[in-house]
Fold each of these.
Amino acid sequence: MSAKFVTENQLAKSLKDQFKNKIKEEYIESNRIKISTGPENLKNLAIAVKELGFEQVMSQGGTDYPENNVYRIEYHIICVSKKKLRSIIFSIMTEIPKDKPEIETLIDVLPSAEFHEQETFENFGITFIGHPRMEKLLLPEDWDDIPPLRKDYILPGRG
Amino acid sequence: METFEEFVKRILTILFWLIIISPLIIFPILFVVVGLLGIDVTIVNEILTAAIDPLKAIKLAERYGLGFSSTFFKIAAFPGFTFAALVATLTILYERKLMAKVQLRVGPLYAGRFEGILQPIADLFKLLGKELVVPEKADKMFFWAAPILSIGLAASLLAVIPLSPTIYIARSEFSLLIPFAILGFSPLVVLIAAWASSNKFAFIGGLRALHQLAAYEIPMLLSILGIVILTGSFDLMKIVEAQKDMWFIFPQFLAAIIFYITILSELERIPFDLPEAETEIVSGWLTEYTGMHFGLLQLGVYMKFYALALLFTLLFLGGWNGPAFLPPIVWLLGKLFFVITIIIFPRAVLPRLRMDQLIRIGWAWLIALSFINIFIAVIESSLGVI
Amino acid sequence: MQNAGMNIEDKGGDQLVLHVGPQHPGSGHFRLIITVDGDYIVGAKPDPGYVHRGAEKMAEYRDYIQNIPHLERPVIIDATGVTLPYVLTAERIIDVEAPERAQYIRMIMAELNRIISHLYWLGIYGIFLGHSTMFMWPMGDRELFIDLAESIGGTRVTFSYVVPGGVRNDIPTNLKERALKTFDYFEKRIEEYKKIFFNNPIMTARTESIGTMSQADAIKLGITGSNLRATGIDSDTRKDEPYCLYDRVDFEIPTRKEGDSYARCIVRLEELQQSMNIIKQVLDLIEPGPIKQVIGGVMRGEPGEAFVRTEAARGTMFYHIVSDGEKQPYRVKISVPSFRNLIGMTHLLVGSKLADMPAIYWSLDYWPVEADR
């Protein structure tokens, strides 16, 4: 541990104490904390992060990794009410297998994730269990191709 | 893109060729038919010569009882429909120019060499050239009826409103009450238009108009009661005569304000334009109307504008009374111009009210104030102010 | 005459479903499905996506430099606001840093764009409340700021001005006097705006305690930007996590406690003044120097990822770029403020009156194209 990012390290340490080896610290940089976990622990991790003071989902997105056969899902959570934590973006990340793209929704913990999760659903085909509106949001209603942000979807004319 | 001048040129070219070609075809036929059948041709001759000689046309019209002093002329031309429509279209142009000046714009500029003076004509041609779209699910009869009713109603308002001691269409002892009786029908026209459109936004707009017009007609009627008390007459002529020494805006200032506010509401102008609030309900009860349908509805509204502005002038600003160096009609039109300006002006500086606020102002404030005004009038008349 | 007259689907009771948009004078490229019961809104479902172009997918096929004009399209009204965070993220991936002068110029452009965007918002808000003069005035005054930005960026709206390593070209030498002249004029205009619009009794009656959002709700729902600041939280990325050289200038974050439509208006009006304040300071601080660090050849990032947020005109703009070492980014995730504020629309509209719909809708400064990407 470097002596530089004191707040960041403290936050990460408190989580590590709580979750032991269920979580993995990806990296800690200036104002950036990224922690990964298994899909089954994601919700508990989110609850713990919220208890630390991070209350808003700023962004939630997925990335397709065809060679590992996984989708990576990432929540970028920020704090707006406490001045000390405002500079930090807390990322929690998990990988879910492509053959069973399902994960529990976080909107009962972090309601601001609602539209973000809906967008990830339509762009990757990942179902968020417990989300009330798993339906098309931005895509056309008659979209019948595979979800467009998957790497095996090739843009027309670019193949 | 065709400019307005090119457009006019094109229309005029068509007219020119029609005029050239029609004698070549119509006159031979006419002469053949007339010559063969031996019909008396003096009437045809007179009509044809009148078509090219205005003086003869006037004589012809007078012979058949349609001259300047005839009732038909009064109703159709001056001071009736055509004059009112002219004032209404000029009001639209004036409103657009005035709004533009307030908003640091130039407004209509290109139609006509000077300040877009021909813009109303350009608008008329544009509206005439548009398709009349009638929605499939609309109630066709009522949908067509609404524009005609609207303009008919607005024109009939003018029947008993005099422009000067000599210029009027009809005289009545109750010439103050008749316009208000006719105004009472205007919510009905709006409702017909809204219902027949079979459109949700139009329906909401129609309901809003009903609420609004019903709420504001009562204070409007109450506000003129003060004047009736002071003059003891329902005759507009007598009311104007009574203002020889003092305009009623001074003893009846409160009434003037109430009447002004209710005019704004009756005309659905900002801040009372809820029935047409475009960001909420598209265009309100006008939503489905296109082309000349819309033009007629709009013309009806602006003719109502003219009639109400005229009433305000007659009731509060002394009508045609003024120093004798100008004829009475000039005084009247000058005051009318001023009234039209102050009716237009709120649109440039005020946003739109909300329904509940509007209803509250109408039912609670204006009615209470107009009762206060009636007391003021009673006190004034007992003190002998007028 | 079958099917004549009112043909309106029966929802049962007195309820009526209204589709506000995508063809509606008060909607933008966006649909709001509203259920009204009498004059009250009992249900509101936003339906975005009418201008969804898949900017994130398309960005995966373009080089880092090509992505700048591409990603500018969703928010042409705030072009620098949307490209600046992209460029900052790309700089982290490519590992370059812009020189000091370039950072200052970026701040000038970002603040100018904020003013341009806010003035556009103000004009539309005026017409949404039926105030046509308030539509024309800000639109006219906006031209002055567009002229300023044009003298820097070369075009009127889509500047593509900020590039990795710096900015495309230097500012004109007379920028300072031009800017100060414009600001002097605009300060006077703001007073006139206040007279005709912000202090107008009808305007305050239409917006005060309308669409009130509590602070707790704003945090919970993820509201950002001016809408968040109108609830009393002085959160602004420019202060929270200063990028460029925002830590060297002194400015205030306008906040309001009420959280209603009027508070959101006033916060934006004060932000206009603060933006001018920032530009004035930057014009004093800026010193001659290089404006660009030249990157030879094609930009290519190290495998890895970076995420950056900035304060765009509508709130926090967030970019997350994943690189696999190719010329093109592997994944670009954009989190735009409008998309995050969209959730507040349902929250605020339900329970209000139909006539308050425009007053609430546009007070959130929702930009459909930005939300759809």
Amino acid sequence: MKGITKVYPDGVIALRDVDFEVYEGEIHALLGENGAGKTTLMRILYGEIRPTGGEVWVWGERVEFRSPRDALAKGISMVYQNFTLIPNFTVLDNIYLAVSSTMRVSREEVVGRLQMLMGELNFKIPLEATVEELPVGLQQKVEILKALVMGARILILDEPTSVLSPLESRALFELLRSLKAKGVTIILITHKLREVKSVADRVTVLRRGRVVGVFNVGEVSERDLARLMVGSDVVVENRGVEGVRGGVALSVEDLRVRDDRGLLRVKGVTFNVRYGEIVGIAGVQGSGQKELIEAIVGLRPVERGRVLIDGLDVTGYGVGERRRMGLAYIPDSRGEGLALTMSLTENSVIGLLERFLGRLNSVRWGLAEGYAGGVVRDFNVVHRSLWDPVLYLSGGNQQRLMVGREISANPRIIVVHEPTQGLDIASSNLVRSKLLELKRRGSAVLLASSDVDEVLGLSDRILVMFDGRIVGEGAPGDFDEEKLGLLMGGFVEAR
Amino acid sequence: MRLGSLENLRSQLLEVTLALVVGFVGGAIALTAFGHNALENIQVMISYGFRDLGYLLLKSAPIVLAALAFLVPLKAGLFNIGGEGQLYAGAITALLLSKVGFYLAIPAGALAGLLVGVAIGLLRVVRGVNEVVSSIMFNLTLYYLSMFAIQRYLLDPVYTHQSIRVDRVLSLPEVVAVMLLFPLAVYLLLYNTELGYRIRVAGSSSRVARYAGVNLNIVTIQSMAMGGFLAGLGGAIQVYGVTSVVDTTLSSLYGLGFLGIGVALIARGNPLAVIPAAILVSGLLIGSHWMELRGRVAPELADVVIGVVILALSAPYAYRVLTSRMGWGVGGG
């Protein structure tokens, strides 16, 4: 892939002039933080999205894929984090369904090929088992088998271990090695350093849409990779901003939380946040911070442990009750924090409506409009009318509206998840300085971000999460990028 | 809440005009295919349908309420197909209580509809039953239950093909007042109260609703209760304002609830636009009877003509609702 550039319709530049080369029969890791552009690059290779500029060459031939179907015809297949299997179909039905959509084969032929493949690769999956009965690790193998039967010679795996247990991950790597021995080319999208070192031959590191290094894995250390992946950009600094330190605002005791699939994602976490303090949670995506945050704000049930606000046990409280106690929340998804079909004004008062009610619970829209006006002014939300649906705003403007709404309400405690995603540097710094302003006025801030510079720059105290646990804690000065990168990548011994 | 911008209004008007043209052309094709003079018949339908203003308004009122009965739950993201059954429940309950007096019978009818709505809501919240499925079941059950009630308790001793008469027939101004007040009330409720806001947030996305601390279960029950109330009231008004009796086959009630769905869609989910939409549709209905009479058009064919027009008018909005709400196509979020 040469000179690939991708600009999304909302103006976000995902990739800038990226060159990416994979040799036949190697395991190539594509390493980078969230939002570095790894998945975007691979979706271009897979024909799912089209590049804004640049060329794609496969097997020495210039190609322009219009859809994954074209990519499949060239032997390229992609396995996503979220599997594309029908849960209540059998393994065979799922594979046959996919195979028969591209070529004419009988079920017997498919069974034959599957058995041959499983024999060569030295593992077994009961073909008549229903997919939902299988553990996640086996479901993933079904996906890989599906791709192979469909003739894949280049296999792209998107964060394959994010849903797997350590044991399952090891089994996956075994499988990848035997695939490589068979001559299959594998591209592994990952942000885990250990995976790169243990299974890949070569690695390309992406940061903010640019290639920052290509290495043979044997010739580069984890430390160098960590430093490259995390990088350093100038961000708003916390230093010198002193808040009025107060008592404990929010605390979490031995919290255990499961995700939607029932996997334990938060495995006994304890910490607290004081008034006038910003506590940052650093961690790669899938380390449990999403589930932790949802449990704190009341969106996700807690399996064990407690959440306390101002010393009061709120574990059994709903979202609304916690909001009334002064807890605000900026989610990591605009699809969660904004009602896209409703207007800017209406979106400005989501969760705050109680402040804008008059007689008979009527909404005082004049007042709400005034509040919305303040938000769009303070946070530079470019808009035409405050009564237009939020749908018409660009991604960055939506993000600023959502963040601005929560910050402008002057919450006593605020939980913030990826507040600057999709924002350019100027807007990001605006949001960051507003968070510092909140802290200065004595609010408690819990900040989770996969942007390491953001966490390092803003936090008074940093917690590093990996695999559902806090694996490191300290002041920003205690960490450099290298140490943080290693901790986030799961090298716990660096503690 | 402000009304949409002028541009928005213009494009909506264009859409409606085009839909009307498409609908009537479709109807004309159907008429021609069966050997009728299309132009003449459509002319009869339109000119006669809108001639008697009083009758037109009278007929529109229950349809307005049936449309609102679909519209309120729709704003919460629910498809209340049960307006039909809720309307029967309201009509029959009101008729049963006609000996007590209309001032009690009509509210009781609305309450009966409300109970059916709550039942559908509860089934969804407690047992996870899809509201469309349970609505359809309630419609059928209530259809036969209503026929039974008329045969058994309400039969007129003289005219044995229909029920007894209501104690008092509502006057035209009374019916028109209901027809104007309720859309206005629903509008104010949806766009100017906390409850309405919560309903609309819930309808926008269940994820956003959870984030905003809106209890989806409570909103489901509330909006279905309101829907049922409005449909039940529609049934009571149909009996007390329009027909005075209900025949043993329920032909004077049958289909009103479903018609309400079409009208709500034609009105683009706007409670105030329900009024003109209902007048338009009931005008077409009245006109189609004249078409049957004058042009000897078969009743089924007349229904086809109206059906095509309603379909053309409601399809664009129905498509938008389905794509955004069910996550079909784009806009799922």
